[in-house]
Amino acid sequence: MIYRSFAKISLAGFLLVSASGLTAVASAQTTNSQMNGLKLSNDQPIQIESDALEIREQEKKAFFTGNVKVVQGTTTLQAGAMTVLYRGEGTTVTQGNADIEKIDVTGKVFLQSETQQATADKGYFDMTKQVFVLEGERVVLSEGQNVFVGCKLTVQMNSGQAKLDSCGRRVQIQLDPKSQQSN
């Protein structure tokens, strides 16, 4: 099922994730840094595909299930399921005027934009707090040969500040010095 009428929703503005700003010592328990590539895009059309879509207007929820794929520009989000919670009197998903409060994604989450990729078991986008979180046994964020592994990635969408947690293990980082060469 393809659903294109998200106009104002703009699915959290959709996210571009970049690992290029993360730097830390590989043995750190928690890494705090900037996600320089985090961007919001409200001006591009969004295409959403899934095996099924259920809209519960009274509850202000839309459930996309089965092979969910969201594309906006060069950014793609894939997941097993996506639940969109919205608010506002008189707003409906079908008219594209819903104000998104939160988006939950589950089932092998994959987020890609140009050269950046992130994978996780689940995640959520809290539009009120402007935070997005990816969680799982192994959360992997990569750009080219640079790879960051933890169990929880939290990104402040307004500032781009990111935190990668180890959840009792160790954060793993692999940096390729060649990726920093600009000339």
Automatic annotation (TrEMBL):
List the InterPro entries hit by this protein, alphabetically: LPS_export_LptA, OstA-like_N
Q: Does the keyword Signal apply?
A: yes
Q: Which protein are we looking at?
A: LptA/OstA family protein
Read off the PANTHER family from this record: LIPOPOLYSACCHARIDE EXPORT SYSTEM PROTEIN LPTA (PTHR36504)
Keyword Nuclease appears in the UniProt entry:
no
Q: Which residues form the signal peptide?
A: 1-28
**Domain (Organic solvent tolerance-like N-terminal) ranges:** 47-160
Keyword set, alphabetical order? Plasmid, Signal
In Pfam terms, one family for this protein is LptD_N
Out of the domains of life, which is the source?
Bacteria
